[in-house]
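Quick one: C-alpha cells for this chain, please?
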Amino acid sequence: MGIRGEYKRLVKSGELTPDAAQKAAIDVLYHLERKIRMSRSFWRGLLGMRPRVCGLYLWGPPGRGKSMMMDIFFRNAHVHSKSRIHFHAFMSEVHHLIRKWRESDAATRKKVFGTHKGDDPIPPVAKLIAKRSALLCFDELQVTDIADAMILGRLFEALFARRVVLVATSNRPPEDLYKNGLNRDLFAPFIDMIKERCTVFEVAGPKDFRLDRLRGAKTYFFPSTAPDQIAGFNALWADMTRLVSEHEAVLTVNERKLVLKRAAGPILRATFAELCGEANGPADYLAIAERFTTVFIENVPLLSPANRNEARRFVTLIDALYEASTKTVILAEAEPASLYPSGDGAFEFERTVSRLEEMRSEDYLSRR
C-alpha cells in the first residue's frame, strides 16, 4: 500500500483524525523511503547516481503520533535487513558486544566479528550491526546514561560510513539530548552529526491525541475481579495502543537491566507484581517515569502489613509517576481510600491515596 496509502486508509476509516502536522511528517517519511530505494538500486550504483542517505530525526511533544508514523514507515520500508528497536535496548546490545569483544580471545573475536585488526571495539561492533541491519529505527531516542553518551558519536560515524540509515523519534530536538549531562561536551559531536547528516523534522501539531483519549475516560478501575472492569481496562489499553507495535522495553538503571515485557512506544503496561513484587527501588521508578508518558498498572491488591514491602514500593512508584506528571491507568482490588484500610503503614499510605485521587482528575491529565 505504501506509506502515504496506509496513512490515507487510516484517516478514511476513522482510525486517525486528519492532522496537517502528521500529514507533513508522513510526506517526509515517504520521500525518505523513496530515497532509500534509490540508494540501493543496482543500476544507479553502476551509474554513480546513488543518493547519500543517513536518515531522519522526527521530534515533537508526546501524543503527536510519532510512534504510529514510525510503524507505518517501518512496515513499508523496502529494506531487506531492518530493525525497529527501542533505543535503550539497542544500546544495551551495543554494550554487550563491546564487552564480548574486549573479553574474548582472538579466535572468538574472529568467529563473532570477523577479521579485524586493532583493539578498538567500535569498528567491529559497527560492522556487525551494519551486517544485521541496513535500517535502524529507534523510538523515543533519549540519552541519560554517560556510558551511552561517550560512544554514540564514534559508533554512528562508523555506522553512517557503512551506509546504515537511522530513523529516530524523540520528544526533544537534537540540541536538547543529554542536556546538562556529565561531560556533555564529549557528546556534542553526535548532536552535530545528527543535524548535519539527518533531516531533522518537528511534528508540531497542537493536538495531543493520546491525551484526548484519556480525557473523559475512566482511568481507575475496580474491583480487579469484575469482568466489566477488566474489559474496560483492556479496552482503554487497546484504544491507546491500537496503531503502535507492542514490544519489550529494557531500561538500564545503575548498570542493572530492568526488563518490562509490554511497552508500546511511550506507553507501558505492567502488573503490580512486576513493578512492586520485585526488588525495584526509587531509581527504577524514576527511570520508568522518565521513559514513559502513560503507565497502565494492573492487579493492584489490597495492601496491609502482610505485604508492606510491596506497599512501600507502590508508594515510591506513585510518587515518581506523580512528580513526572505521568498519566496513570490502574486496575485495582479497591478504590484508593480502601486499598490500605488499616494496620501499621495505613497512615503513611494516606498521601498516596490523595495522589491517586488527583491522578484521576482532568486537571492532572492536563499537566505536562
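The chain has two domains: 3-202, 209-365.
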